[in-house]
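Why does this matter for the project? Reviewers at the last site visit asked to see concrete outputs rather than summary tables. In response, this paragraph embeds two records directly. Each consists of the residue sequence and, immediately after it, the corresponding structure tokens. Nothing has been edited or filtered.
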Amino acid sequence: MASKKSRKTQQKTDKDFNTSVYQILEEVLRASLQEEQLDSYYSNKTKEMLEITEACFSTIAKRFQKANQKEKEILLKLMKHLKGIEHIQFLQDFVRKEMFLPRTGHAIFELFTKSDAIIEEGLASRLLDLDNLTQRIKQAITGGKIDTVLIKDFTSRDMLEREGIIHQLIDESDVQCSAFIVKVLEFDEKKGWEAIGYVIQLNTIESFYILEAIYDQNNGKEIEKILKKKAHALKQKGIKIDFDVKKEKKTSVLKKVTLPDPRAFISRIDAEGYRLIFLIKPVTAYETKIFNIVTNDMKGLQKLEVTNAFRKETQLFIEKLLADTRAEFIETKPENAVFLVEEACRITEEQGSEVNATIEQMKKLFSDVIALRKQAYIYDVLDEEAVLQQQERASNVEELFDDSDIVFWFVLSDIAKEHWEKLSNAAYSPLVLSDIQKQERVQQLHVETAQQFFTEQRRRIFKRRLEELAFFHYSKGRKEEAEQALYAGCSLTSPDFLAEKNNFCMEMITRGFNFFESKYGTKDKSSYGGIKTPKDFSQFV
């Protein structure tokens, strides 16, 4: 049993640890409220707290419980970098019992989805539904079309959820949210007054303007009385209501807000068929949804995540994306990016797998461009028939391979590795063969490899890759390369296709074997013909 002295020492040490952690938390809150911080900042601060004590979460939880809504969102960014399940259990209890903004709930949802902890059934979907409903309400407010279905969805939620929605609308839509509150008041007077009560609780000049906008649309005497009391209360706080300035502000705020246009960025498809897609959709004047998507042309949709970002974060993200030297990105129309995502979803479903549920968010936010596109974008800018008439494209395929990783479409396959061994044995056989005989055997193996490799399925997949490569070249101002890629792609599915007669196919096989020879072939007098046959491809894979 520990002595009384040692227990006091331990208690003092724990108190010092908690104080240090608390100081870091306050530092993070101050910095984040002044200026938006990158995710790496929160990661480093979490590491600092864990280095002080691995039991730092108890201090974080206490600070979270007394934090305002904006502070909660910041603290969640720290929790994102915690391991274990203690914070997940805490957040489940919080969601069940407390009022929170739907965007806060969505941040919690993302923590749930990345955790291995068992989540209470229905809790994650509830958070997602709540955020979706709020986004629909905001879009309806912005567009000036608030229908009865939306009001019914809102009034069917429990009281804490309705409170969270109203507070987020106040924060993000300002005076515009008055139109929604009036509609609720007309549909359900009790719940309408409940919403007005949340506005009254905010003793700010902004809440006065919201109440006045409600009064302008409703003309209720009760609201008029509340306005007079609120004006008096604001005056006592030193805030003078200037009716002329007030009316000018009200008129300008109620005008329909024009949000920035959505944007989309796509990467080139890599040798294994993977590509990155980013869809960016402004949902308020300062908040944006960023969809991070990974697709594969053989496996379908591999990843679909959505995050909230402020305007500055979004701009920094785009700048970093375009400056990335590891992956080449181009900006494209959102309808094209959505078309590519839908294409990946179809591949996933055809293989009997389920599509990520987050796809519903994407569909709602990009409903105006869903199913708008029916074919690859390259056919909007290049005429397939005109390109196919350019016979010089059939033989001039070298340039297409010079500035791309097309050769690795073949090199990464099992067929390539298997046939490279056969080719090495044929070219450097211990049998006494003439150079002509060896060359004939090599050429025969090239043809056999092409015939086995270019199956109907592969040709269909490669055609799509080449269509997308053509679009990439065209977007970069390289029209000739775009035409070359499109010609090669279309030639793979022509009725009279023969792999051994197709220059693109044979160039891929030849370059692939040349790659193996340059990487693994080593001159050695004791080896057959001077080249050792590679036995291990793991270093390349």
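We now turn to the second protein, recorded in exactly the same manner.
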Amino acid sequence: MKLSQIQIKTLITILVALVIVLGIFLRFYQLNEIPFGVYPDEAANGTNANQIAEGENFQVFFEDNGGREGLYVYLVAGVFKLFGSSVWSLHATSALIGIFTLILFYFLAKELFGRKIGLIALFLFSISTWHLTFSRDGFRGILVPLITIGLLYFLIKAYRSKKVVFWVLSGVFLGLGVYSYIAFRMVPLILLLLFLYYYFVQKKRFWESKLVRKGVVIFLISAFIVAMPFLVHSIFHPEDFLGRAGGVSIFNPDLWEGGFIKTAFTSTVKTLGMFNFTGDYNWRHNLVGMPMLNFWVGILFLWGILITIVNFKKTRYFLILTGLFVMLLPSILTAEGVPHALRAIGVLPFIYLLATLPFRYFFRTKKFLSGVIILVLGIVFLASITYDNYRRYFVTYAEKEEVYSEFRSDLRELGEHLNRNSYNSPIVLIDNYSEQSLEFITDENAGYKRFSGDERELDELIKMTKLIEKNFYLVLSRDFLQLADRSKQLKKLEPQETVKNKFDQEIFKVYLIK
């Protein structure tokens, strides 16, 4: 029985909807528990979002906490308005961004290779642990795949249809990109290389078409208008345009190990090897050291690269291969924390387009029996990858003590403890950087004061309080627990409370100073 084209389209539409539901499930399932904590960099986004939600601190670039582009913060503020300020709402913002990324990605893949390939590409992207990890935290880098996909999709639609609305939308996405994350600033290089490819390889002068020339002008004007506030800011604050890039760059002599050439070579090899061999070592980004791709997806990815090389003279293949290597540059050009999954997050759309290309060979069979066998094997294959990725994130990764620690879950437990208990202006021993998490998590009832001195200063504080006969609570955060052994005054006291995490590790202590 042969299905009609309408039946095939309907079936694929249903399957696309089911895959998106799967993507929603993976991004919202146990979101309040995995990850449980909120890292100070995430918390800074949440604190700024609270200020915006309250009608304050409107900026295109937030200079505190090392400097951050503002788009993600404004999106978080919108979610806070709807659901209230919380760790869940902060992480839900990324989850929502991740879901919209999946939807746009399907349309991009369909535009390039048709519905069937679009469906497979969407499926592989939706179960990606790489994308899943950043869809469940509070880092702004999750915007890069979304905006890159939107830019390319609407640009392709604009070129093929010549419709003004698509030129405008593609320009809007390009302009929005400057407000996302520094890695996006490599994207214009993709467009430049694509232009050079058309001219030198395909010998096409697409600008000879009046409609295309008009469209390109509209595209550039739209991008400029949207990006203008950030560009004006960058004129007066040029250091904000590159952010931390200079400090971690391979061009920074302080980071060279064996000279520039060796440093650049090492960074390149580590970055290229992250897909199939050794991945990111940061617990907030990855199950430490594990390849960023599932074994079989990694094989498909390499196969897809070979396909693009063979078909290099076809524009869509050139675009994918160029996009992959350009968006690897933010990782390759740095000499710190390499391989770095967050800096390289812009490669995700290109990875899953490449990994899907081999499936085109399986769709060409005309024999019914062969088609059934391929379909059954394909379902089993994709189901096994799904199960493997699910276990990797929700079982293995989620249960690691290092993940709990690196996301500073101890600070969330401390903050929620302060919210539940009225300590009457307790003094919390915590450093400036970590306090960002505590500041975001605690409410007005906590009313704590920060102290970050050494044991001698702490002893003086306790003595002073005893002299004026004023009781207060002293709370030692995880990083200051050792002061309990070094402080002469605290050695004389027993903690009123010692709180441990689920790994039976002490995470904070509470003392009543009389």
